[in-house]
UniProtKB/TrEMBL annotation, chain A:
One family name in Pfam for this protein: ABC_tran
Alphabetic keyword roster: Amino-acid transport, ATP-binding, Nucleotide-binding, Transport
GO molecular function: ATP binding; ATP hydrolysis activity
Family per similarity comment: Belongs to the ABC transporter superfamily.
Transmembrane region(s): none
Organism: Halarchaeum rubridurum
PANTHER family: CONSERVED COMPONENT OF ABC TRANSPORTER FOR NATURAL AMINO ACIDS (PTHR45772:SF9), CONSERVED COMPONENT OF ABC TRANSPORTER FOR NATURAL AMINO ACIDS-RELATED (PTHR45772)
Coiled-coil spans in chain: none
Segments forming domain ABC transporter: 12-255
Record function comment: Probable component of a branched-chain amino-acid transport system.
PROSITE patterns to which the protein is assigned, alphabetical: ABC_TRANSPORTER_1 (PS00211), ABC_TRANSPORTER_2 (PS50893)
GO annotation, cellular component aspect: plasma membrane
Name of the protein: Probable branched-chain amino acid transport ATP-binding protein LivG
TrEMBL record, chain B:
Cellular component annotations (GO), alphabetically ordered: plasma membrane
Protein name in UniProt: Branched-chain amino acid ABC transporter permease
Pfam families found in the cross-reference section: BPD_transp_2
Chief localization: membrane
InterPro entries: ABC_transp_permease, LivM-like
Transmembrane segments: 20-38, 50-69, 89-115, 127-144, 185-204, 232-251, 271-296, 317-341
Keyword Cell membrane (UniProt): yes
Length: 260, 367
């Protein structure tokens, strides 16, 4: 079982993508072909290489070997800061924020970057007014309007997770990589967050790759699931296929089938 | 005044976000009030140093564009100021180039050097960046000391022929004489101060400046969200150098030439200390830092000549003057305390907290 589609014609594709840290092979010859509009879950045990896969796909880390394709174009060597401008955005597993800036400013400065490009000599006018309306709209979408003027570091954990999504959305992506958007949330809040992701996906026409540990969520919302283990793809398929896969059962899912 | 009104005033005094008019008005107030305040009998009692205060405020504020707004800590900022000072001094003394031509060239040269150095080192990690700026500043000092082609005057610096013809001095005061006009040097500097600081403020509040702040807050996140962090840092470094050189060219006239101390590491260190002391988080922080540092320097260095009531008290007479002349030690101590308590807040941050508490107390709120 694997991705049948051609990575070079997918919304996001990888071919033989690998990342080595010295002797550790964190990502091992990964082939992905995520189709436009798909919600792809990436699952796997701790240390499987899920975050590292995101890091090499976004070029936060240079891959050791292999290629990355965005809408059919080879972007393997495109620097990290260019990628959001090509439609590839991500959120982080840890809460990455502009901690001492207001929630609004966190989103606004990224919306400004999306409009101005990787660098711009915009030396005139009041920066805080640029794209502020767009930023407010995004905050409203993720339910953070009432905290617009709060310093980001003072948000609750769950709100900081949502702010991470809001910032990624502010780049105006077509492909969105979410690294455990529900981590540290209770069941109810997790469910709400996943619904938020789904509604954003529908409204904005996004392709979403989501790393997620909660199997109940994964099985209910994904179009397809990719299982990583020790850096390589163990299986890719629909939720039904993955649940029926013996390799996956042995290596990872354990007792989940019985529970469901 | 009613309690609420008083509290309101205090709150506004301590407001974090200065509105559109507050900064320009604040700068004007500093320019207009500084000299009368400094020369008041209860303060220093003489006005001449006020001009130096203003010039150093520009220089330290230019440094804070790096430290406060971009999160870049340079240990060699004096180099970029010194390039301005030396450019003008060399142009006047060796090439008879008019000041008004030499000054912009000096500023451009400083910015150009900063751009090249920035391209080389701006992407390095914090410690390496700091070390490299130190190394560059040290080599600039070395070059000036080496006196290549007799241009820089070596250890003695440059004094002869370094003053433009339109600068006049009489009885300790300096004047700018243009045509039939004669204006006080202080007011010429004050005008440059206000314009220069307004430009710096616009830089900070512009979309460009807001991106710098994002870089300061979280460089990795900014990069992941599409910001070319390296280029922003290089240009912040370049602009900061240009403003430092603006202060540097003023210093050339103010100090009547150029001396090696303008390029020294000690001067770079003092710039950092003044910025931190005042409060790197605030646009007016460096101004407060310069004021306190230079005021204390002047005041305490003169302390032994002052006759204070204290000296009548037998206990206080013991060596008080002798101790206080080591003003740098006490300011150093204050600096250490500021860093330990809150490295980015400084005197202005402290003031803000105190005013906030005070206004809360007046309102009768419990804390
Ligand atoms: N920058 C790095 N340097 C060295 N080793 C790294 C680095 N980043 C990750 N690794 C290693 O690569 C492996 C994969 O780590 P990664 O963070 O990608 O796992 P993960 O699947 O995201 O795990 P988790 O579910 O805990 O988030 C681990 O063995 C990790 O220690
Ligand atoms: Mg991870």
């Amino acid at each position: 079982m694997s991705d049948d589609a051609d990575p070079r014609s997918a919304a996001l594709g990888t071919e033989g993508l690998s990342k080595h840290f010295g002797g550790i092979v964190a990502v091992d010859e990964v082939d992905l072909a995520v189709e436009s509009g798909e919600l792809r879950a990436i699952i796997g045990p701790n240390g499987a290489g899920k975050t590292t896969l995101f890091n090499v796909v976004t070029h936060a880390l240079a891959p050791t070997s292999g290629s990355v394709y965005l809408d059919g174009e080879d972007v393997t060597d495109v620097p990290q800061e260019r990628r959001p401008h090509l439609g590839l955005a991500r959120s982080f597993q840890s809460n990455e924020l502009f901690a001492e800036l207001s929630v609004l400013e966190n989103v606004r400065v990224i919306a400004q970057t999306a409009a101005d490009g990787t660098f711009s000599f915009s030396l005139l006018g009041d920066g805080r007014a640029v794209r502020a309306d767009e930023a407010r709209d995004i905050l409203a979408r993720v339910g953070l309007s009432e905290h617009a003027e709060t310093e980001a570091k003072n948000l609750s954990h769950g709100d900081q997770r949502r702010l991470g999504i809001a910032m990624a959305i502010a780049t105006e992506p077509s492909v969105l990589l979410l690294d455990e958007p529900t981590s540290g949330m209770g069941p109810g809040e997790s469910r709400e967050t996943v619904e938020l992701v789904q509604s954003l996906q529908d409204d904005l026409g996004l392709t979403v790759l989501m790393i997620e540990h909660d199997m109940e969520i994964v099985l209910s919302v994904s179009d397809r699931i990719t299982v990583l283990n020790r850096g390589s793809v163990l299986a890719t398929g629909t939720p039904d296929e993955i649940q029926g896969d013996d390799d996956v059962q042995d290596a990872y899912l354990g007792g989940v089938r019985e529970e469901l | 005044m009613s309690r609420d009104a008083t509290a309101g005033v205090l709150e506004r005094l301590g407001a974090v976000e200065l509105g559109v008019w507050q900064v320009p008005l604040g700068l004007l107030a500093v320019a207009v009030l500084l000299r009368p305040v400094v020369s008041h009998d209860l303060m220093l009692g003489y006005p001449q140093v006020a001009t130096s205060f203003l010039i150093w405020m520009i220089i330290v504020a230019s440094f804070n564009l790096l430290m406060g707004y971009t999160g870049l800590i340079s240990f060699g900022h004096a180099m970029f100021m010194g390039i301005g000072t030396y450019s003008v001094a060399i142009a006047l003394s060796s090439f008879a180039v008019p000041f008004l031509v030499a000054a912009p060239l000096g500023i451009l040269l400083s910015a150009g050097v900063a751009y090249l150095v920035g391209r080389l080192i701006a992407h390095k990690g914090e410690i390496y960046f700091a070390m490299l700026t130190l190394a560059f500043a040290k080599s600039a000092h070395f070059v000036a000391n080496y006196n290549p082609g007799g241009l820089t005057g070596g250890t003695t610096g440059l004094a002869d022929g370094t003053m433009p013809a339109w600068i006049e001095t009489s009885r300790g005061f300096t004047y700018v004489a243009l045509g039939g006009f004669r204006i006080d040097w202080y007011w010429a500097v004050a005008a440059v101060f206000v314009v220069g600081m307004l430009l710096l403020w616009q830089l900070v509040r512009s979309p460009f400046g807001r991106t710098l702040v994002a870089v300061r807050e979280n460089e990795a996140l900014a990069r992941a969200m599409g910001v070319d962090v390296r280029r922003y840092k290089v240009w912040a470094f370049t602009f900061a150098a240009a403003f430092a050189a603006l202060g540097g060219v003023l210093l050339e006239i103010n100090n009547q030439g150029a001396t090696l101390s303008e390029l020294s590491i000690v001067t770079s260190g003092n710039i950092i200390i003044m910025a931190v002391l005042g409060g790197a988080n605030y646009f007016f922080g460096p101004l407060a830092g310069v004021f306190v540092w230079m005021f204390v320097e002047e005041y305490l260095a003169d302390f032994h000549t002052l006759v204070l009531p204290l000296t009548e008290v037998p206990l206080a007479r013991i060596e008080l003057a002798g101790v206080l002349v080591y003003w740098q030690f006490f300011l150093g101590l204050l600096f250490v305390v500021a860093v330990l308590v809150s490295p980015r807040e400084g005197i202005l941050g402290l003031l803000k907290t105190v005013l906030g508490r005070l206004s809360a107390r007046i309102r009768g709120e419990s804390e």
